[in-house]
Amino acid sequence: MRPPLDLAVDVVTLTEHLVDIESVSRNEQAIADAVEQSLQGVGHLTVTRHGNTVVARTDLGRGERVVIAGHLDTVPLNDNLPSRREGDLLHGLGTCDMKAGDAVILKIAATVPQPNRDVTFILYEAEEIDTAFNGLNLLSQSNPELLVGDFAILMEPSNGVVEAGCQGTLRAEVRTTGSRAHSARSWMGDNAIHKVAAVLARLDGYQARTPDIDGLTYHEGLNAVFVSGGVAGNVIPDECLVEVNFRYAPDRSEEEAESFVTDFFDGYDVRVTDNAPGARPGLDVPAAKAFVEAIGGEPNPKFGWTDVARFTSLGVPAVNYGPGDPLLAHRQDEHVPIAQIEDCERVLRAWLGGV
Amino acid sequence: MRPPLDLAVDVVTLTEHLVDIESVSRNEQAIADAVEQSLQGVGHLTVTRHGNTVVARTDLGRGERVVIAGHLDTVPLNDNLPSRREGDLLHGLGTCDMKAGDAVILKIAATVPQPNRDVTFILYEAEEIDTAFNGLNLLSQSNPELLVGDFAILMEPSNGVVEAGCQGTLRAEVRTTGSRAHSARSWMGDNAIHKVAAVLARLDGYQARTPDIDGLTYHEGLNAVFVSGGVAGNVIPDECLVEVNFRYAPDRSEEEAESFVTDFFDGYDVRVTDNAPGARPGLDVPAAKAFVEAIGGEPNPKFGWTDVARFTSLGVPAVNYGPGDPLLAHRQDEHVPIAQIEDCERVLRAWLGGV
Questions:
Q1: Distance CA B290, CA A94 (A)
Q2: Whether pTM exceeds 0.90
């Protein structure tokens, strides 16, 4: 039996304990059990369990409710467990993305019994994989009332500053066709792979837009992420497929993003396979504005798609704010500066009126 | 039990019987058994078995020996068995490549007891797959004396005219590299797929050489046959691979072909993975010249690599000569004109001095 999670330890030790409970996506039962059990021991919280997602709420009748959320899963193991302290850093799978953030959530949940606004703490499963498994997505369907709030904070790694909004992401397939022939008589066929030269040259010449939105500068990107073609070593191929990923600033709608890509590849067979809209920073919303002011520092734009966009689509203004460098997420050598974990805990505690 | 193969039937019926014994590469036992058994009944032949390759020889002390060979295997089934006659055509898997040729070999073997030159008939396994399984290749290692001759005829489909020589074939990998990044921050990476644009553009601009060799016009070809790249849907790829196939005329050596490809892709990481030389037509060799004169008609160059090159490398002048259109080989709708089978049998019988 694993010893129960002790919320009385300091936030860095708690991060270590969370990291050392392996929780690759679809294997979150142990960590969700530990989190649930530890929160059940906190008198001022109402705790519910939904699959491997745990929700803990205060209900103090405050005029405002904030949702503070973190995912419990990690990307696959890469010979980077257990956790390991080295100087000012904590190393290991999930230290950055995002068990340091989860530890901050659990510490605040356990030790701020009278927050100045009601809080819904959510520790959820399966953020790193298909949205069909995403704990927040499932909760929005089964218990939408639990996601209601005036403001939401996702404690994804953001270097301890507010990252606002997020870019949209669209995937599309661009296909070229030709006709097969034996490669010994190649002139009788029409090589579909050769035709991809022009598709890739177009991509290579793409100029990224960097729009300013609500004071933040976004940066788009259009890239081939896969290419595949070929029938056999002695056959002129009749089809080639390029899969592209368009990351677009949140001033474009899904439809506008789709039009852009379709126009960009004018003359080719283009099929959009996936499209998730971004979220405008929304820093003009009073709750967000107040949070940014309380935290201090300059907010940054968020480039990667996060569940911020899910909250935005539910009508809840949301930002990312958490310890760790987002560029280290999903890397074999991911780590988090110990001071950032402690800073985040302190800042959040102060904002909620804790001591 | 399958009834024994009857060599007394006409050559077209015999082709049907051979086609109806399914013999996809590596599954030639049944057809080799039937062929061996039928030839054992022919008094003037010495029959030996080597794996699923059957060899039958006359030994009349003639001044000249000719090897006449055909492979027994076919490419995979494609809903094209059993055989089916329709008007002047015989349809089905292997009708063209090359059981019509095999039927001619068997009829000649059985019914020309006193050929004017000694003959080694070879019906062999696994021509359609990796050369490591090729029955002629295996025989050249285990019993090289059985391949000795003054001249060889491969009864591969050639529309009933002599096809001479064959082109070489070289495979190479051309690789581009870059550096990975999350596609949400694509500008921090270096997209290896985009770099393939220039590789494919170079291929698209390739101008084929069509040299004249010993009076026959060859036609080279340089093509991408596979392209692959990509790590994940949200990752800028750091590597992309283009596999090319160079079919080269027999006036280039293996080394010259390799130099050509390396120079063509100057500036890229090129690795040659396979290289099989071609064979010059060799129609100036007396035995070949005499055969062409006896057959009549204008000889054609052979574009595809065949076992003609293997005989050439063993010092045995060789040509392709058989019923069926080589362009129909490996096609779902392969078929052979009935008249071409009968013509080939008649021509070969006459050349061997049969009645």
A1: 79
A2: no
Strands (DSSP E) found in B107-256 = 118-124, 151-154, 163-164, 168-177, 181-182, 212-213, 216-217, 221-230, 235-236, 239-248
**Alpha-carbon distance values, B61 to A213, B129, B145 (Å):** 94, 36, 16
Q: To which residue do tokens 């940014």 refer?
A: A292
Sign of CA dihedral A259, A262, A267, A272: negative
Distance (Å, whole) CA B14 – CA B6: 8
**Minimum-distance CB partner of A200 among B197, B303, B330:** B197
Cβ burial, residue B205 (10 Å; 0-12/13-18/19+): exposed
The whole-angstrom separation of Cα B192 and Cα B239 is: 5
Cβ proximity of A151 and A291 under 8 Å: yes
ipTM of the complex, rounded to two decimals:
0.79
d(CA A106, CA A32): 12
pLDDT for B285 equals: 82
Residue B254: active-site member: no
Both tokens of B2, joined, read 């399958």
Burial class (CB in 10 A: 0-12, 13-18, 19+), A306: buried
Q: What is the 3-state secondary structure (H, E, C) of A262-323?
A: HHHCCCCEEEEEEEECCECCCCCCHHHHHHHHHHCCCCEECCCCCCHHHHHHCCCCEEECCC
Angle made by CA atoms A134, A140, A142, in degrees to the nearest 5: 100
- Cβ separation of B233 and A221 shorter than 8 Å? no
Residue tagged active-site, from A36, A73, A118, A150: A73
- Residue numbers in chain A where pLDDT is lower than 50: none
Closest-CA residue to B101 (of B323, B351, B304, B308): B323
Does the beta-carbon distance from B330 to A195 stay under 8 Å? no
**Contact present, A51 and A125 (Cβ < 8 Å):** yes
**Chain A hits for B234, Cβ within 8 Å:** 169, 225, 245
pLDDT in tens, B160-179: 999 998 899 999 999 999 99
**C-alpha dist (Å) from residue B197 to A223, A246, A270, A273, B204:** 13, 19, 18, 23, 10
Which candidate from B225, B231, B233 shows the least CB-CB separation from A230?
B225
Q: Looking at residue A2, what is its pLDDT?
A: 65
User: What is the tens place of the pLDDT at every residue in B264-320?
Assistant: 999 999 999 999 899 988 888 888 888 999 888 889 998 888 899 999 889 999 999
B98 neighbors B324 (Cβ within 8 angstroms): yes
Residues paired with residue B337 on neighbouring β-strands, in sequence order: B89
Q: How many CB pairs under 8 A join A and B?
A: 176
A225 vs A28, A94, A130, A317, B190, CA distance in Å? Answer: 29, 25, 17, 31, 12
Strands B65-71 and B151-154: what pairing? parallel
The amino acid at residue A4 is: P
DSSP run (H or E) holding B14: helix B11-19
Q: Are strands A89-91 and A84-86 parallel, antiparallel or unpaired?
A: antiparallel
